[in-house]
Amino acid sequence: ADYGPSWREHRRFALMTLKNFGLGKRSMEERILEEISHVCTHLEVNAGKSIDPQTLFHNASCDIICSILFGSRYEYEHEFFQTMIKMMSENSKIANGPWGMVYDTMPLLRNLPLPYQKALRDYNTVNMYVSGIVNEHRATRVPGEPRDVIDCYLDEMEKDKAQVSFEDRHKMPYTQAVIHECQRMASTLPLSVFHCTTRDTKLMGYQIPKGTLIIPDLSSLLHNVKCNIESAKRNQR
């Protein structure tokens, strides 16, 4: 992450949304207790058999996360659910091990067929599956009535498709430059609006009495090379 404006905006949105879905609140405890009931059921069904507790608690914690992100949990025997947990566990080991350090510190080696390539393949596999869930949410969601984090994200993306407002102009220097240049070339009001002096004044050595009609020649100004260069420099600053 570059920790720039985009990262800060995503972080703000993620924290706000997760809090709305119970992070740090009693409603999160309810999700956990609900999942514990599934853990107990699994233990009862497998009474007298050997089980891997690490796998069991991976299943439980991942299901709690899935219920927040996707709006539903998976059965522990679900094929892709198990595959996803396995891939994420392996990727965590790669990312926190020596091959992760190699990938981060030596970008020139990233295209070589080294072990960290498996982590990238696993990531793409999970990403494709989640993209399918997102597309399903797009087809079934009710705007403004989010069922999970994905729906909240889609609602937020829809908000960003409001038209550009006047306040956005400071973030659009190229658009402003094009508009200003079009106005300069068009010279739609070559003599601008007539004015009148409100008091006796002096301009460039000329005495202008109060009440004198002033007719500015904007066309000469808009096509003055020196003035345009100075204006461009000010805009860049």
Automatic annotation (TrEMBL):
InterPro entries the record matches: Cyt_P450, Cyt_P450_sf, Cytochrome_P450_fam2
Gene3D superfamilies xref list: Cytochrome P450
Superkingdom per UniProt: Eukaryota
Keyword match Metal-binding: yes
Gene Ontology cellular component list: cytoplasm
Any one GO molecular-function label of the UniProt entry: iron ion binding
Single Gene Ontology BP annotation: organic acid metabolic process
Pfam families documented for this protein: p450 (PF00067)
Keywords: Iron, Metal-binding
Keyword ATP-binding: no
Family statement drawn from the similarity comment of this UniProt entry: Belongs to the cytochrome P450 family.
Protein name: Cytochrome P450 CYP2X20
Organism: Triplophysa rosa
Lineage: Eukaryota, Metazoa, Chordata, Craniata, Vertebrata
